[in-house]
Amino acid sequence: LPDSLSGQEGPAAAAARRLANRVADATGLPVELWDERFTTRTAEAAMVEGRVRRRQRRAAVDKVAAAVMLQHYLDGRR
Q1: How far is CA 35 from CA 27, 54, 59, 66, in A?
Q2: Minimal CA–CA distance to 71: which of 21, 17, 34, 24?
Q3: pLDDT tens, 29-55?
Q4: d(CA 52, CA 27)
Q5: Can you give the pLDDT at residue 46?
Q6: What are the Cα distances from residue 12, in Å, to 1, 18, 27, 77?
Q7: What is the pLDDT of residue 8?
């Protein structure tokens, strides 16, 4: 759920909610939304710390950010 830094929902968050509702309706499964703020920044910092080259970081940042978000979700469920 792409909230703004203030925690307010904007157009991207509304679109994410609509998509989540469509997925839930199509699958009959519950869909949980999770705050994605700072995941890209965290992913980028981890890759810099790991000495990943800039070109490789650009190619992988979204995948690493998704892993960061999943880990935050799983940690929050404990």
Answers
A1: 22, 26, 23, 11
A2: 34
A3: 999 998 888 899 999 999 999 999 999
A4: 38
A5: 94
A6: 8, 10, 22, 25
A7: 83
Could you list the beta-strand ranges (E) of 1-78: none
Residues 33 and 24 sit within 8 Å (Cβ to Cβ): no
Helix (H) or strand (E) holding 63: helix 54-76
Q: What is the DSSP letter of 10?
A: -
DSSP code of residue 21:
H
pLDDT of residue 27: 98
Both structure tokens of 59: 């190619």
